[in-house]
Amino acid sequence: MQRSIVHMDLDSFFVAVECLKDSRLLGKPVIVGSSGDRGVVAACSYEARRFGVHSAMPGRMAKQLCPDAVFIRGDYDAYSQYSDMVTDMVQHRAPLLEKASVDEFYIDMSGMDRFMGCYQWALEVKNRVYKELGLHISVALSTSKTVSKVAVGEAKPNGQIYIPIGMERRFLEPLRIEKMPMIGDKTTHLLRTMGVQTVGTLAQIPQKTLEKVFGKNGTWMWEKANGIDTSSIVPYSAQKSMSKESTYEKDTADMVFLRQEIIRMVSELSFDLRTQKCTSGCIAVKIRYADFDTQTKQFSMPYTASDQILRKYALDLFHKLYNRRLMIRLIGIRLSKLASGGMQLNLFDNSALTGPLYQAMDRIRLRYGITSLKPASILLQNRRPDRLVKSF
């Protein structure tokens, strides 16, 4: 059966929401982020992009490139709300939906041409999103996720494109190699030293040659350059929360040990958030005393997946909550108000500059296990495994 994969991408989403809130921003170079020393550009309008501004750029550099830009701190609660509304609108009509991020969606329409024109369906959803929410969304239809994603980038802003079966390679051939997903700056530089400037040239290189240079990634690049991508749509389901808690064989009031337990659980939860490309807007701490009295305290916070920020909130909640000075039987951490979108959503806080560090740490943990890296504060004193009954 011929695959029909639609990719939808909201145009300059954060800026678009800000323009809905304040119409005076329309047509102006708008930057969501901070222009301070530690500021990072989370998003920018197309007017700002004409000056060379782009996402993840230091705010100070963006200010130099575009002195007249309007800087906005950002309101992720509003972005999350609009993202949820678009998700509901698309999910209600889609046979199979994957929410790739806060502003990107994949829909598997395979086999639906007999009931409806897949491309016409995508255009109807596009028009409905604009009519009901005032947001422009670009759409692309092809036989794979990779080609549809690249095609959306070519269709932006507020565009639509259809790549018929058999035309995938012809569409990709003239494009610059950096337009292919997951080909970063280092890979791009190395390919250019090999004389590879376009996807078409990359597709002509023998697969074994790319494997020798790039290992398994060489096979992946060769397939994508030739329009080959059989990856499936991952069905979307909104996770409400995630949590961890530990019950101890012996009740304890050892504050050093309890603080280490909180730091450990926060570190594991924040890793889970980032691997699932999520952020959290609410954190809760639970303690159960020796007499089984259970107390919980929570705090709503700016959306984040940062160990450092979550650790601070968790420890603050614990010290406010622990007021009976009795022995503790159980302690737990829960993160709720989850929103998809990955680390880019953390660009509003000062932890944005630690993003590359988290990415490096997560790669190590994915390869060697969650316990391969631990916060130094945990290593200062060994945990007491005899106290642990269960942890989940």
Can I get a quick summary?
The chain has helices spanning 13-21, 46-49, 59-65, 76-91, 118-133, 145-155, 168-172, 185-193, 199-204, 207-214, 216-225, 255-275, 307-321, 355-368, 376-379, and strands at 5-10, 30-33, 41-44, 70-72, 97-101, 104-108, 137-142, 160-162, 241-252, 278-289, 294-304, 328-340, 388-391.
Q: Can you characterise this structure?
A:
- This protein is an alpha+beta fold and 392 residues long.
- It has two domains: 1-135, MutS, DNA mismatch repair protein, domain I; 241-391, 2-Layer Sandwich (Dna Ligase, domain 1).
- It is 40% helix and 22% strand.
- It contains 15 helices and 13 strands.
- The strands form three sheets. The protein has a five-stranded mixed beta sheet with strand order 5-6-1-7-8, sandwiched between helices. The protein has a five-stranded antiparallel beta sheet with strand order 11-10-12-9-13, sandwiched between helices.
- A hairpin with a 2-residue loop joins strand 5 (97-101) and strand 6.
- Helix 10 (207-214) crosses helix 11.
- The longest helix is centred in the C-terminal third of the chain and has 21 residues, at 255-275.
- It starts with a strand and ends with a strand.
- The model is unreliable at 343-351 (pLDDT under 50).
